[in-house]
Amino acid sequence: MEFGVATSRVAGAFRRVTLPFLLVPLAFLFVCSAAAENSGPDVYGITAPSIASSLPDRGDPSGVRKELAEYGITAVFNYTNDVLANVDGGLKRGVIDQGLLEARLTVDLDKAIGWNGLSLFANAFQIHNTGRMLRDYVGGINTIAAIEAVPTTRLSELWLEQSFDNGKGSLRVGQLAADTEFFFSDLSVMFLQSDWATIVAKDLPSGGAAYPLSTPGVRLKYAPDAETSFFFAVLNGDPAGPGPGNPELRDRYGLNFRVTDPPFVIGEVQLRNDPSTATLNHTYKFGAWGHFGSFADRRFASDGTLLANPDGSGNPEGHRGNGGVYAVIDQQIYRSIGGAKDSGVAVYSRISASPSDRNPIDFYVDGGLVVSGMVPQHPDDKFGVGFIYSKYSDQLSDFDQDRAALTSTPFAVQDFEANIEFDYLHQIIDGWTVQPDLQYVWHPSGNPDRHAVVVGMRTALSY
Length: 463
Prior knowledge:
Elements: H1 6-31, H2 64-70, E1 73-89, E2 94-108, H3 109-113, E3 118-129, H4 133-138, E4 152-164, E5 169-176, H5 198-203, E6 215-225, E7 228-236, H6 247-250, E8 263-272, E9 282-301, E10 316-334, E11 344-353, E12 361-372, E13 382-392, H7 394-407, E14 416-429, E15 432-442, E16 451-462
Antiparallel strand pairs: 1-2, 1-16, 2-3, 3-4, 4-5, 5-6, 6-7, 7-8, 8-9, 9-10, 10-11, 11-12, 12-13, 13-14, 14-15, 15-16
């Protein structure tokens, strides 16, 4: 997928006009306002599910939360804690504890200042752990637990959103994370490994604008009817900026606000049935992304030699631009008569491909099965089985073989990494869940001689 010479011109233009470009949507906010449907918190400022609904005085004895909600100001606090143990294989055995406290602030500026259809959103993370299971113990690339990150306190998203056309469309501008709306399966959220897909996390600079990183950009959404939605976003192409080491350390507090890197663009169309009339629900998503930066070849050097050749230049051939396509399927396959619309049995899958010559991962598929509301005494409990398969690119595998042949040194040829996860989610009360978890990993980091077994327990609270 060669983007051609024109991409370098586009990238240069992006650097010159980024700030004016970002100001255009801001100007749009001043001329386009319309009523937006409020599907957020209730009159007490509670966003379900929340432990507040089970607490005396709804967890708000002074009434401050309810009073703020009357002015359109609501806050949500989520805490997630994982205790995980690598009990076999991987880099080493051991146990870690990790936690994520997220604070979210939403301001309905219609209620607050009378600006119809305008809202403000901000969220921040406090991340802490005693180690990192994927990096320190398993040594793989597929997500083990999606909250894993460098310990810090960081800003995540910060944006304004203006609705238009009677709420059918909205324009969002500010610091954004692509993984909150794109390339995402709603059914997968119960799994610890539910995350920004490995193929984009490994193929994009700094892993792309996905937890825990975010970056300035613009997102447009339009839903002409209840069954169709269109999404398009233009974001700065490197959230942390270039440099050695872990990108999370290059932007440790989420305050880089970079706007001069070659752009990243992503578009998605979502097709769903009307849940009020359908027997079985489904959502199908089709998307594509592109990046206008430069990417190094995985096998060949700029002088035409093999990168693994000790006598070659060692400088990889450069490629202008990168891209990929993907699809997401959420499909309910069984629901009992009279059952809740999200109960029963459902399956999901995400599948994606990218060019082999400039990416470490060129094919990705994940999926799973989720059983919900099937235990009468515990209608909110769920059981699920999920899997991830990430294939190392042909060019990267060829590089490993070249290196072994040219240096007469045995090297493991990276082929794939695959995970399977068994998960049971039990709701104690609204807003408080616990879930035991078991995962098996084949070929961590593509090494066919390795495996890992991880067990753990997640606790999640929302207020």
